[in-house]
Fold these 2 entries.
Entry 1:
Amino acid sequence: MNILRILIAIFVFAACFVAMPRADQLAPPVKIEKRQLLVPPKAERDAPVAFFAGPMEWLRVKQQGFYGSMSASLRQMKTEPFGAAAWTLMLLGFGYGVFHAAGPGHGKAVISAWLLATESELKRGVLISFLSSIVQALAAIVIVTVVLYVIGGAVTATRAAAGILESVSFALIGALGLYLVWTAFRPAPKHDHDHHAHDEHCGHAHAPEPKALSQDWSLAKACSMAFAIGLRPCTGAILVLLAAYPLGLYWAGVLSVFAMAAGTFLTVSLIAALTVYSKHLALRLAGSGGRAVRWLDFSLRFGAGILVTFLGGALFWASLGTNPVPG
Amino acid sequence: MKPSDSSGERVRRMPRNYLLPMALLAALAAPARAHPHAWVEMNTDLVFTPDGLIKGLGLIWVFDDGYAQAALDGLDTNKDGDYSEAEIAPLTAENIKNLKDYNYFALVRFNNEKQLLGEVPPDGAKQIWKNGKLALRFFVPLKTPLDPRKGEIVAKVYDPDYFIAFDYAQKEPFHITGAPPRGCKPELKPVPTEEDLQQTRDFLATKGKDWTPPPDQDFGEMFAQALTIACAKS
């Protein structure tokens, strides 16, 4: 009897210990995000977001407006596949791309940092923008196509696939950052006077041509850069493809994803142009003497490298821990 | 039978050609779209009292995969790879609370009079994740039950802003719970035919560009499919 009581007492005691932390775990505060709702409260839905009140929120809302209209066009195309709705869809895709690229995102930050550190020629910046936009479009198309047509899997599988690519993309970005840091410490290439050896503009009174600094250009590098960034597919692109599929308009979805890429390309090119020109300006200001320029080159590479490494690393780490939240 | 109005002021249906410009217009006019666009495949349940009055609508909405994905994100709190009703419940409660602001996207007219709808209690709705589809199910009561023998009942489910697209399910678009009066049969009006569209075009052609629908009506209602109850005259 006594033994039984003791056993029960021990059991109850132990149960309390086990149950105590459990009670906390059992009721995790489930936070319902705004984007999970079918509809927001009406007051919120009708309140217009002013641009100056929050440019980022404004962009996000615009982006969602585009997505909503794209879905509407797709539905319209169901009855009339080659009507005006098809053109509208393409235009909307383009607009979505423009706004998407202008919104917050690590891709732009990485491209700008990279260009700031290594590039001083606009056309290359534009080429990188182009490549990354195209890779991003292709990534979305490949994922969704493979999942829907090859695996025939559930749509949720696209999310898993997109999540994996996202992690890989972040890891690659981290690697890019490390590479940049390495180039900062690498002995300066002996090119200063090779190209312009007898160029009268190469005197000390003038700044070296910014071109002289862009020695690490190669198509392969540009491609790896575009690959690292673009590998993370754009959520909007995936959503449009998934929306087009059940309507039997998959091809229209694919076309609109390319229209999106065109829009993204436009915005990213502008960002690239701004970046490259600010670097030009910085180089001119640092103008006199190769030393200042070299110092500037070093700090840009080192700073951008550290920044990109941390960005990629942090995003990679976060993407492993939680469900990747596409945005 | 077409939903008609003796005054002739009411537009019957909007041609599809207007649909897209209108959706765009809605997008521009109301820039705050803080929610993803969703498509709903629905089944409407006409719920009768024992004495044959309609007391409300049971709404079953099956969401498109895109919305379901966004909605369910992070709700698998016990990480078992499945979304139980309890796991989705917080979202369901929030959605039902917000849907009230929109009158649950449901509209009931009795002899052309807009009817008042009651409130769905927070626990009056269920969301179920099954076979890869997310479905919401709830009952919207009418403030006053309606007798289909005494007048024309028209029920429509639609989003006037067209950001949620409601479509009746191909298979079993509606069903009945309880006992409808003898000789009364629910009927789902078909989507507009080319003839209907031409009528609307002709009608709109007589109006100026600034014409807007009467205040108690919106464009969305004009092309929403109507669920009616026809009673044999006795």
Note: The two ends of chain B are 19 Å apart (CA to CA).
Entry 2:
Amino acid sequence: MVQAMTDQTIDVASDFSRFPGGRYKADGENSGQAFREDILVPALRRAIDTNSRVIVILDGTSGYPSSFLEEAFGGLIRVHKFDKETLDSVLVIEAKDPVYQPYKGLSRRYMQDAQASSSAH
Amino acid sequence: VAARRLAIRIRRRLLTSAPTNRASPSSQLITVEYEHDGKLRSVKAVPLAVPQDLSIESNYVEVAKWLSGLRLALAKGAAQFQERDQLQLPLERNQPSQRFYDFAQIKALTPATALLIAAEYDRWQTTLKSRLGVYNRRRWRKPVRRLLSDIGFFDLLGIQLARGGKKPSAGFVRMTRYESGDRVDPERVSNFIGQLLNLVLRVDERALDLRRSQTMKLVVALIEATENTRLHAYPPALRDDPKLVPKWWVAGAAYPSERRLTLVVYDQGVTIPGSLEDISENSRVIATWMKKVARRYSKMKGRSGEKIADHVAIRLAMNYGTSSSGRPHRGKGLPVLKDVVENCRDGRLLVLSRFGEYRYRKGKRPEARGLPEELPGTLIVWDLTF
């Protein structure tokens, strides 16, 4: 039996970049694809294997363009075929500062949209 | 070699006698100063007319016509230059043209038009890999000279201005030097916005949630605008065009006494309507949906083969974030441009793209109309009061 481990925390501002933006790696250094592939997905795989959670903290950056959030979070379902239910139990998105609250909602919405879109196909 | 030289002379005559550039009433050769790469000399040339009011926002038709003439003139100059280069004839770098646009005629110039001019010169300098010159600079009106100086126009041309002339431009305190690029660069965009807002917001209010939220929305909107350029404005077929520089250009002006700033983004790509037209070829389902929605904004009858007007296409993109990729997860960015306006005390947004104009003012209904002159590319102008 796999034993539950300590949750992993990803602070976007300090673990990735204070200036996230761009959809694909070709668009720029701090793209949603880079965040998803290099940081988020490896952390999620570890969390699933160890029955723990990944907590993503959105605070402290210059803001989040929609394409970044869509590619980072929607891409989990669209590209990596994660199941929305699994993500609901493993992935926690946090925004303590009220200024970042809208981005938390958007991230969730993009995952829902991606799930709806993948179900439709 | 003699035949080649003759061919060049004929071509040069044809080009210099092209009827596209309207000469000033006198149409006579005059002696003017020609400044190129730090060198100044006297040459004889015919001045061409430039609109006195170079405000693309309020004098669109005249300015767009003039910009198209400027582009053509620079393109012809580039063609001549490259022809000489290809034929391996002596390159007459620094060779002044016999005709020149007389900027001394300009009485009013806005940041948006200044950016369009700078972008055009930047494009042709990049294409030519050589610097362009200016005529009669010392006779230009001071506010015009200062605005072009602030935006970085003279730096672009490698012309160094005398020190001590850096007083605030008339009508606004400071214009930021233009930035350009071909990738998404959130850090540069963020610093650029920070620099502008520091001129408008008091130190004690910058930490307030409202101000932080406004700053963030502005940064995000500008990133979205530059990203749209990268993703949609220059499709692969266009990127191969050697006369095109697939970049975005950004500039801003601050009016501290009014707590107002102007932010301008420009690209020379396929335009928003042009980008959306690709959908018709790629996806019949989306094309049908677009036409259905477009009928709400226009007098379209829904006949087959009927095209969506440019201003309707822009309105569609602004409302729905329609993406030229035709993929549902893409194209969510354009509505964000409007959010910035909503988030300020007062604000306006102007989008000019090909033959379409879209205007939005906080709390009002958006207005869109067709334009008689084409703007090659997409220009976005925010005018925001905090």
Note: Chain A touches chain B at residues 17-23, 27-28, 30-31, 62-67, 70-71, 74, 78, 98-99, 110, 113-114, 117 (CB under 8 Å).
